[in-house]
Amino acid sequence: MPDDPICPLCSRSIPGDAKQNLHHLVPRLKGGKHGPTVLLHQICHNEIHATLSEADLARDYNTIAALQSHPRLATFITWVAKRPPGFHSKIPGPRRKR
To answer: One Pfam family name from the record (predicted)?
Structure first.
């Protein structure tokens, strides 16, 4: 639908029935509690947090452009962009090491 919001990470529309989340560009625990948020597909949000630590997000990846430039996220975006807007699955591959 043309009125559906667009996921700024993958540029696909977010249908009303799709799993979705608000992402704090600066993590809440790192001072972003009242900072800007963006609406993302849940699968996109999950991949961000599976890839990057809160410290990395706060320090180096606190914009959509920075997130899109991360090599693993860029590969994910290329892959997920070929999926339907409401697509959701568990994140493939291993989670980042803590």
So the answer is: HNH
Beta-ladder partners of 23: 38
As a residue count, the chain comes to 98
* Structural domain count of the chain: 1
In a domain, 97, yes or no: no
Verdict on whether the full-model pTM lies above 0.85: yes
Answer yes or no: is 65 within a domain. Answer: yes
Domain span including residue 41: 20-80
For the record, the structure tokens of 65 come out as 């452009």
- What pLDDT score does 1 carry? 46
CA distance 97 to 34: 28
